[in-house]
């Protein structure tokens, strides 16, 4: 009886590995969250506090938009590099192939909402609706995570829903956009990464 149960567990594990991308490390989420918090702290230090309450002023936008865009690019690159490092390291430990049909489907499912969201944010910057970019990044990123959760651990789904909710709230509280951005991309990523790490990587 025990032998049959072990065989069933092994078959289930093989099926899960073939249909799910399980090499994503929780440390990737933690490192991304730390990068986001560092970027938010830098932006907070560089931007005058009152500027966030005058986002509709063209002069204010001209002053802070280039700074925040550059800051966001640095955060994104840092998060991608550290995330790739931990994910590749975990895949090697597991003896799994990183680039396969499942990871390709995962990437495509995330890229569609992310590209749409990126285009939307560029359009908002172009038309001067700068304040929409903060919540929009959270909303579209959350949708991308929900979309991709079919191909990885289910915890990703809850992270995605949380990002969407925070983004929707931020739409109505423009003066707190930087706070919500740090909460969504920083704090939630760290919590998500810690949950994934201790649930799946310490067994």
Describe the structure.
Keywords: Membrane, Transmembrane, Transmembrane helix. The structure is a single chain. By secondary structure, the protein is an all-alpha fold. The chain has one domain. It is built from 7 helices and no strands. The relative contact order is 0.16. About 6% of the residues have low confidence.
Structure characteristics:
globular, transmembrane helix, 7 helices, 203 residues, transmembrane, single chain, mainly alpha, 79% helix, 0% strand
Strand content: under 5%
Please trace the helix and strand order, writing H or E for each element: HHHHHHH
Mean pLDDT level: 80
**Beta strands, count:** 0
Stretches with pLDDT under 50, minimum 5 residues: 7-19
| N- to C-terminal distance | 25 Å
Largest sheet: none
Structural shape: globular
Count of individual helical segments = 7
State the secondary-structure class.
mainly alpha
Number of domains: 1
Oligomer: single chain
Fraction of helical residues: over 70%
Q: What gyration radius follows from the Cα positions, in whole Å?
A: 19 Å
Topology (SSEs and partners):
Layout (H helix, E strand, L loop, with lengths): L1 H18 L6 H21 L11 H37 L6 H27 L5 H16 L6 H16 L6 H25 L2
Helix pairs in contact: 2-3, 2-7, 4-5, 5-6, 5-7, 6-7
Q: How would you sum up this structure in a few lines?
A:
The protein has 203 residues and is mainly α. Helices cover 79% and strands 0% of the residues.
